[in-house]
Write a structure and sequence with these properties.
Low-confidence stretches: 4-11
Number of domains: 2
Strand order of the largest sheet: 4-3-5-6-7
Distance between the termini: 61 Å
Helix content: 40-55%
Number of strands: 11
Order of helices and strands: HEEHEHEHEHEEHHEEHEHEHHH
Radius of gyration: 21 Å
Structural class: alpha/beta
CATH class of the largest domain: Alpha Beta
Length: 330
């Protein structure tokens, strides 16, 4: 495909999410941006490597015919490929839509129809099966891209391809048009739509909400001003990336402050991975904290008297230290 002409307004690229990524890759190319645990080993991606993969995926989308304003859905667990797909879509003016990984087929079809999605990035066989089940209800859906190949051998469907295949398309496109990615990147304005999110659906079926780059970065600036984060700090991304709260911290704040985002190996290993990483900052809804406290209290009651005494002593001293820090003391 030939590169198309598009609006090249002179915006400030560092005031957009992919623009911030480009700046991080330039200023701190060798610093770790993303870390994913796979087969028990943490795999690291630097800021430069992060940008390279975003560039490859973005240009792969261009090669597939994705245009400015097209909607790109993403569904799956938290993985580097999620944010790579999101930022890749944003880099060319497409609109990413995050979907919850536990959505049933009917819910998935409704949101894909509402967004008129042209392409969906689905994590694995489970998510691909759900998409294939409802594909007839979404006539505009041309491509299904998966990034976990386990169980996908032998699958044949129009437009079904791997994440790596899209990146390879982008690499070849970039060889032919080496300046196309940068040209599209600088054309993105802070006021452009960066993300489509679903509402909670508490009063009716979920609806689509549009958030701009400026909106997301304004929230991130407020977050970082209240709880300062900086390069070298660690964050564990385990809440759904379809949720705006995780987007605000795990994507927007990470790009703004430059801290490292870690992705757990599996849902069941989240707590162990959190202990291993020792994040400088965590954000969760109250129910998550309540479950953690409940589990710890149960374990404390079931242990030996000595360990129970140590737990109570440590909690008492920890509360005292936390209150002193909140009050500005040492």
């Amino acid at each position: 495909m030939q590169p198309t002409q598009r609006n090249t307004r002179a915006g400030n690229p560092t005031h957009t999410l992919p623009g911030l990524l480009a700046r991080r890759a330039k200023d701190r190319p060798d610093q770790v941006a993303l870390r994913e645990k796979e087969f028990g080993i943490w795999q690291e991606t630097t800021w430069a490597g992060f940008l390279d993969r975003v560039r490859s995926f973005a240009l792969g989308l261009v090669e597939l015919g994705v245009e400015q304003g097209d909607r790109i859905a993403i569904i799956g667990d938290n993985r580097p490929e999620w944010v790579i797909a999101e930022l890749g879509a944003q880099s060319i003016g497409a609109l990413p839509l995050g979907l919850y990984q536990d959505s049933i087929s009917a819910e998935l079809a409704r949101m894909l129809e509402a967004a008129d999605a042209r392409l969906i990035v689905a994590e694995d066989q489970e998510q691909v099966d759900k998409v294939l089940e409802v594909r007839d209800r979404v006539p505009g859906l041309e491509y299904i891209v998966y990034y976990d190949p386990r169980g996908m051998y032998g699958y044949k469907a129009p437009g079904l391809m791997s994440f790596e295949a899209v990146e390879a398309l982008g690499d070849r496109f970039g060889d032919r048009f080496p300046h196309e990615f940068d040209r599209r990147l600088v054309a993105i304005e802070p006021g452009d739509i960066a993300l489509l999110c679903t509402t909670s659906g508490t009063t009716s079926v979920p609806k689509l909400a549009m958030l701009s780059h400026a909106n997301l970065l304004a929230m991130a600036e407020q977050m970082v001003s209240v709880d300062p984060m900086e390069p070298g700090d660690e964050f564990v991304s385990f809440l759904p990336l379809a949720w705006i709260g995780e987007q605000m911290v795990g994507v927007a704040s990470a790009l703004l402050a430059g801290f490292t985002v870690n992705f757990p190996e599996e849902t069941g290993t989240v707590r162990a991975d959190i202990r291993e990483i020792g994040p400088a900052f965590m954000m969760s809804p109250p129910r998550i904290w309540e479950n953690m406290v409940s589990d710890v209290q149960v374990m404390a009651e079931d242990t030996t008297p000595l360990k129970r005494w140590m737990y109570r002593w440590a909690m008492r001293e920890g509360v005292r230290a936390a209150e002193a820090r909140f009050e500005g003391g040492d």
